[in-house]
Amino acid sequence: MSKEKIAICEDLADIMPPEYHDMVENATFGNQDRSWKDIGSSKELIEQHSLCAGCPESIAFRFIMSSIPNPEDSVFVGSTGCTSLVFPHVGIHNIHSLFGNQNAVASGLKRALAVRFPDRIKDVFVLAGDGATVDIGLDMTMQSWFRQEKFTTICFDNELYANTGGQESGLMQRGFVAKMAPKGKNFDKVRLPEIAFEAGCHYVAILTVSKPNRVEQAIRRATYVAREFGPTYIQLYTPCILEIGKQSMEGLDEMKDSESIGGRFVMRELMTDEVKAFLKEKEAEDKARRKKAKTVTA
Amino acid sequence: MEEQYQVMPGPEAFLPPSAASMGIVLPDPGQAHIEGRLVDEEEAYEYAARKLLAAKVPTLFPGPLVLWRWNDKAAKKAAAIRKLANALPARLIPMADYRPKYPKINPAVEINPNHPNLTIWYNKIDVCIFIGVHCHQANLALKIIRGGTDCYTMAMCAQAGHEDACLSFRDADPAKIEKLTAAVEKLKSEGVKSEAEDFDQFVTAREG
Amino acid sequence: MNKKVDGQNSKILFSEKVDIGSKGPVNLTVADPNHMFFEAKRKACFLTGSEVIKEAIRRANLDMSVAYPITPQSEAAALIGELYAEGYLKEYFRGESEFAVMGQCAGAAFGGARVFTTTAGPGTLRAMENFPMWAGSRLPIQVCVTCRGINSPLSIQPDTLELYYMLETGALVWHAETAQDLYDWILGGFMVAEQPDVHLPLALACDGFFVTHTKDNVMIQEDELCLPEYDPYRAPVPCMDMEVPPVRMMRDPFIMKSNYISYMTHASWQQEVRAAIERSRKHTKVVMGGSLIDTENLDRDILLVSSGTAVSQGREAIRLLEEEGINVGLVKIKSLRPFPFEELKEATANAKTIFVPEFNVAGWLAREIKACLPDNERVIAGPQVAGGMTMPSEVIVMEIKKKLGMKVEPMSGRG
């Protein structure tokens, strides 16, 4: 949808609650240089959420939604879990469907949008938890990569099943004692980033959401590469503070600890040389455009 | 012979049946339905106009398809709805989207398909008409209203109509909304007075 | 119990945006379905059921299909791939499992595409979680279910047990007897399922092998016509393409906040899906030639009531019985969801005994019929065969004669 279509009919504008006016007037639809830096000065796409106080997933959501380059022509596919409690309140069309079939739904959706809008960019994103991505949905996650489906898969890795109350998941660390792993998990955290790259993802990133500029960079890179090359994958550590026994204030520290030297979430990116060259060019282009815009405004 | 079900204001039941499951059939093009009875569309205009004029709190519920200017037709419908509201007069309460809202809706200024009864109760709405709400969400709302309130519901539907409303038009376009306005104006010119209580049209302050 | 809906004078409605006479895929011309179905000149073609599926899909103005191999639908799914290669549909691929395929179909339908797929037996069950999701999300996907047995033990042979599982998914369920039914109902099915007041998935069932792998004469339009395209903006829910308001929209949100009214929203949502099935009656009657059932000789004391190829076996049994002076009438049930309650009540009003031959061990059709008829001790659930067994007409004859107190020689099993 063009930004112009996200507008309120004048004859009924005065009866619309202010949050909708705010969305039309102050959200960053149509701004290809939108950024996490707009948070605080513009209307966010997330109106509200019912996640726990201090949940890193909520800040991850806000960074992602402020970073995607084309929200007026993006559609999200989620899966059952905490994320699906947030999605109804996001100003972007989104689909819940079932638990685990998110990459199958996104495959059909992306192809249908490509057929119906051959001359337009319609970005599709999957955003699901680690249970949906790696356990119950792994087949469909990987098959979409094998098939070279052109969309971005984002996994909120909280290393357990959060919404159902803290059960063992494939991305959980070895030895962690959890529900359904009463003696501690007895196999290693699944190395999905490496598997993703092997399975055909053209851009892979693993990081925490402690630094918004890094999240933004990964999201934009993954989106651009998905449009041009094929599947991309981002794994974000969003610890479930509730289930790992932390306080509301401790989410950020938990993420910072996990990305310090030797930690399992030290940021890393996997991509081919071709993709690297493409991104270099694309990012130089973006930079030049932003610089030009700045000069014009000044 | 079983008595034919009628789509009447409630409160009807703990969980009322869908009207379709009780054998109510939607009108064909050129028709409307009044309480489940298929009638010529022309008959429904005056009936609907009388209902709205006789109401204490007549209310129009415009939905996303007419609140948002996503095409020219939507803007025309919005203008026609405004004219109808002014002609009656009637309140305008928007259904801007369909999400289950947290922590709660403000029933004074909005209606939501997941608990439309809150808005009906809060404003003591006795007659309402849905315009520009997607059919699935309209049917949820209409049935819940019939289940728990005594509000007389109507629908000006752009598609096939709503048997869960007490009265429904189909294939609505700006001209049909204007025709309903004309019916209101005609009745008024014949001496039928609006029974609506005084109200302030727009309280759009945000809570929560 | 439904009110009988008059479908005789109704027409098939379609989007006003459609340009009748415009160019469709390849060499096809977009036709008014009322002309295409009821007026256009037809020619006889001698085809297998799988080929019939291909010929119907060729003319369906389809956007997308997703395939997965399982006997006996593999051939049809592969033939649709040939259509894709020829340009008749815009997108086609092989998914990784039936569960995934139905998710892929859902994604495409959420995105506003007309979608068709096929499945059978164990595949239907593997995909099962998707079907109520399709219905609850109001996705008008058509799936052709070429019925076969369910494990264990494995059987690839015809058996209609899987339809029992389909009945409460919220989908429309039709059961074709012949290749002609299959052809006409695939095309008509899209027009019914996509009506804004219906907008539900359609499971179009036919009996595997008996229909898919046998050749039959099928009347197909002579002219190169196709259906009007699907218009996703007539849907009763917003299309998930960011082209229709509201933008803040989850198509299938969690509405179950913990209080009575939101549980009631969920209940109302389920009722609405079933209401949409009810609303399909008047549209279905148009494409099925006036009624959800076909009848022959309803004045007779004994009736055979069945669906699918069991109807064909019944017809032959009736002919055999007539040779012996025993007169039996017939009811063919074409639509299982919606179920023709009132039509059946009327059709069986004079019957003293009602036999329900079925190709499954559960006897689900007999249960459905017993649940809606007065004096249901008249209903005899049988004969039943399963696991790929044929149902020789003589078996039906034998059952009826036994009931009449006539002496019969039991028919021995045939391996």
Explain what the structure shows.
The complex is a heterotrimer of chains A (298), B (208) and C (415). Chain A has 298 residues and is of the alpha/beta class. Chain A has helices at 18-26, 56-67, 83-86, 102-116, 130-136, 138-146, 192-198, 212-228, 251-258, 273-297, and strands spanning 74-77, 94-95, 123-129, 152-157, 203-208, 232-237, 268-271. A seven-stranded mixed β-sheet of chain A has the order 2-1-3-4-6-5-7, with helices on both faces. In chain A, helix 2 crosses helix 8, helix 4 (102-116) runs parallel beside helix 6 (138-146) and helix 5 packs across helix 6 (138-146). Chain B has six helices and seven strands, in the order ββαβααβαβαββα. Chain B has helices spanning 41-54, 64-67, 72-87, 117-123, 135-148, 174-189, and strands spanning 31-34, 37-40, 58-62, 91-92, 127-131, 152-156, 167-169. A seven-stranded mixed β-sheet of chain B has the order 2-1-7-6-5-3-4, sandwiched between helices. The N and C termini of chain B lie far apart (53 Å). Chain C has two domains: 29-234, 3-Layer(aba) Sandwich (Rossmann fold); 293-403, 3-Layer(aba) Sandwich (Rossmann fold), CATH 3.40.50.920. In chain C, helix 12 (364-372) links the parallel strand 15 and strand 16 (379-380). The longest helix of chain C has 28 residues, at 260-287. Chains in contact: A-B, A-C, B-C.
Order of helices and strands of chain A: HHEHEHEHHEHEHEHEH
Q: What is the global morphology of chain A?
A: globular
Oligomer: heterotrimer
CATH fold topology of chain A: Rossmann fold
Beta content of chain C comes to: 15-25%
Biggest interface and residues each: A-C, 44 and 42 residues
Name of the CATH class of chain A: Alpha Beta
Stretches of chain A where pLDDT falls below 50 for ≥5 residues? none
Number of strands of chain C: 16
**Uncertain regions spanning at least 5 consecutive residues of chain C:** none
Q: Provide the gyration radius of chain A in Å.
A: 19 Å
Helical proportion of chain C? 25-40%
Number of helices of chain C: 13
Straight-line N-to-C gap of chain C: 42 Å
Largest sheet of chain A: 7 strands, mixed
In CATH terms, the superfamily of the largest domain in chain C is Thiamin diphosphate (ThDP)-binding fold, Pyr/PP domains
Tell me the total number of β-strands of chain A. 7
Classification by helices and strands of chain C = alpha/beta
Class of secondary structure makeup of chain A: alpha/beta
Strand fraction of chain A: 5-15%
